[in-house]
């Protein structure tokens, strides 16, 4: 058993001590590119360093952090080879943070035998804390979350499609289907914000192409524990241990919604 509240407290400490003091106050030299268009800041680096140390005090297991994997891509393999591992996104939505927007978060997940067994999402700007434990439910600040079914008519469904990394043919197909829905956006560019929007009913579906574990391990568990659906386009459940080579992830409010969105956007 993991102390869920202890992990939430660690995320809040890091947000208070490292993240929030630098919001809208970064200097030019504190923002770097680790790849073309992919930003990293001193906040990402410092937050991950502290999270890694603090989480290992709770469960002494390898930590697959976004910035650690950027430095050593082979580290992500521990999600398949080790019985237990942490997954950490120290600053989800880094570009939003750099641009002074509020849509960013701090996330962590505990993975056992390649599957997420616990996940945490903190939205520092609003001090909202989400947590989910496999078999025990999903929660926001102590309040149980249960996702209501989506409308059955796609013309009343709202969602987000992150098409940036889709191949051109798939992108054209998805974009042609967008008018069938009530509203389709590109998301907030922050999983720590977008997953809770589906969980709490503000949106009905989320379609991703890239499935990096630090972006999706916490949120997919939050959704499924609230009664929603998180699956690959082939119907397989999302598992962070499958690695980064498995692409595509469709999250939806319920089974019927998932099938409708898949049939319209992906088939």
CATH class of the largest domain: Alpha Beta
Order of helices and strands: HEEHEHHEHEEEEEEHEHEHEEH
- Total strands: the figure is 14
Helix and strand composition category: alpha+beta
Please give the share of residues in helix: 25-40%
CATH superfamily of the largest domain: Fructose-1,6-Bisphosphatase, subunit A, domain 1
> Numbering strands along the chain, what is their spatial order in the largest sheet?
3-4-5-6-7-8-9
CATH-defined architecture of the largest domain = 2-Layer Sandwich
Number of domains: 2
Helical run tally = 9
Report how far apart the termini are: 41 Å
Instruction: Extract low-pLDDT stretches.
Output: none
Summarize model confidence as the mean pLDDT.
Answer: 94
Large-scale geometry: globular
Task: Estimate the strand proportion.
Answer: 25-35%
Characterize the main sheet.
7 strands, mixed
Q: What is the CATH T-level topology of the largest domain?
A: Fructose-1,6-Bisphosphatase, Chain A, domain 1
Strand and helix layout:
Layout: H1 4-19, E1 31-35, E2 38-41, H2 42-58, E3 63-65, H3 66-71, H4 78-81, E4 84-92, H5 94-98, E5 105-112, E6 115-123, E7 128-133, E8 137-140, E9 143-145, E10 158-161, H6 168-177, E11 183-185, H7 191-199, E12 205-208, H8 213-225, E13 229-231, E14 249-252, H9 255-265
Parallel strand pairs: 3-4, 10-11, 10-12
Antiparallel strand pairs: 1-2, 4-5, 5-6, 6-7, 7-8, 8-9, 12-14, 13-14
Protein name: Fructose-1,6-bisphosphatase
GO molecular function, one term: metal ion binding
Keywords: Magnesium, Metal-binding
